[in-house]
Amino acid sequence: MASIVENLPNEPIWHLLLKALTSYPHHIIVDDAQSGLEADYTQLVTDMLHMRREILKALPPSMLDCDYRIIPQRPYITIIAPGNLDYIVAAFAVLSIGGAFAPIASNLLPEEASHLIKMTDSTCILASPRFMSKATQIQKHHAANGRTTVVIPIQVQNTRPDRIPQIQIDQTTTIDPMSPGALIFTSGTTGPPKGVVRPRRVWYIEPPAFPSNQVFLNSRSPHAVGVALRLIWNVQRGSRIQLIEDSSKAIWERFRKGDVTLFSAAPPEYVDLMTYFKDNIDGLPAAERAEYVEGVRRLNEAAVSGGVTWPPVMAFWRDILGRPLVNVYSSTEVTTAMQTSDDTDSTLERCIGNPRHGVQVKLSEGDHGEILLQSPDMFTHYLGEEDTTRAAFDEDGYYKSGDFGHRVGDQYVFDGRASTDWIRRGGLKVQVHEVEASLVSLPYVSEAYVVSAVLNYRNQIATLIRLRATGKLNVNLSMVRADLAEKLNRYKLPTLLRVLQAGEVVPQTSGGKPSRRKIVEEFFTLSEESLSEAGVEFHNDTDVEGGAPRKLWDWGGL
């Protein structure tokens, strides 16, 4: 019996996959240490084709055109999966029918996930076996609101054919490279996140060498843009994706083996890894300690992105690696826009290097000002938000990042957010005026000032309040957070509190406005050891699962 040959669209992504399958069918691209699972290109394509058939069977005929491609009016399919083979298979399957995938976080409430699915007008959820229960809860909530959603289990490690899967490129089937290729959710102003639409051409990469023979370490969820895109790109490049549990211990033990070549993380993760090293590795016998240091020095690239990395952390990693971290300036809208290199002046604090290939950068005031970005594969729009999309671009089509920077020679230096009215906490944005308004609505607060302060290398929501003379006398941070819990999402609740005493004044600018910079300097420049002496309380909210019962958008849908 002749093998069935399955057609794929005439796009660079499929030409690259066909080349990989034909030339390197048994090249391992996924190695999952937790499950013991390995997958090569033959297995990936086998699983992708199976998943594609399941999607086509589940979608209503009205969702497909005559070529069995998803119609452009409703291109989005939701994925809920860890950053492993499940996600990779589901993503390629969606792309193979002309669709765009929308990964969502696994810790969302059913109401939150249902809202995001409604935003996308998605008709089905591709769910990893690990998250089938969650997907079913979302489906039930969706149904209770009169909407139908099909849940399709993601199946991997399907029985391999006796021969390499037969695929070919249908030269007559082309897809607009600017049509949706992925939908990534990012923090909104208030409530639900925004949907950032990336075009299909974000997948049109040209690896300089194939296979890359790199080993990329991942332990994170694919709902964040850096993971969502990099997992697919590394498959396209022929890298080996090494999957491990998300813990500092597991990451250091993997570094110790010495075969990992690519690693990328946000500043807080580098802080955690630094702390683990100091607490658990630094004091080991010299020979044993050297195994970890020698292993991590075999990284070809250790990149940090997603915020400012504080100088002591950069210095630690420079010492451990024998060279600086690669500092990446990125966003959900543009991904990697700039990054440092071996030629970067390592004495320049907050240096973000030079633009990546294909990215154009300009500063609003010439050699300084707001950072404006343009690239062929940057986002096309915010889903369902025409006004917000228009406001995000200047008259020349450059994306207005909301960040300030300046140039030193040919290098760019990050100066911070364009407004002090926002606090960035990980991937979330907190509007300070919203928090201040909620604070002064409390019956015992007469004045409130909210600023961004740093403690333990993390941005904190620092709150300075003055109590009403007739109000409560014994006010503490736990009380304030509890009283604000119904007014604010949990990620917006204060994490540092200082109560102004009689006679203390709030520093002001020459124009008579509160000086947020001086508030930080006078009240919140401290270490964890000096909190009590400074009269400041601290709440550690890094454990997002703990505390009071959750309500909608407590963690911004991310």
TrEMBL record:
Q: Which GO molecular function annotation, any one, does this entry have?
A: medium-chain fatty acid-CoA ligase activity
**SUPFAM superfamilies cross-referenced by the UniProt entry:** Acetyl-CoA synthetase-like
Q: Which InterPro entries match?
A: AMP-bd_C_sf (IPR045851), AMP-binding_CS (IPR020845), AMP-dep_synth/lig_dom (IPR000873), ANL_N_sf (IPR042099)
Matching Pfam families: AMP-binding
List each copy of the AMP-dependent synthetase/ligase domain by range.
77-383
The Gene Ontology biological process annotation of the record reads: fatty acid metabolic process
Cross-referenced CDD domains, in alphabetical order?
AFD_class_I (cd04433)
Give the family from UniProt.
Belongs to the ATP-dependent AMP-binding enzyme family.
Record's protein name:
AMP-dependent synthetase/ligase domain-containing protein
Protein source organism: Aspergillus coremiiformis
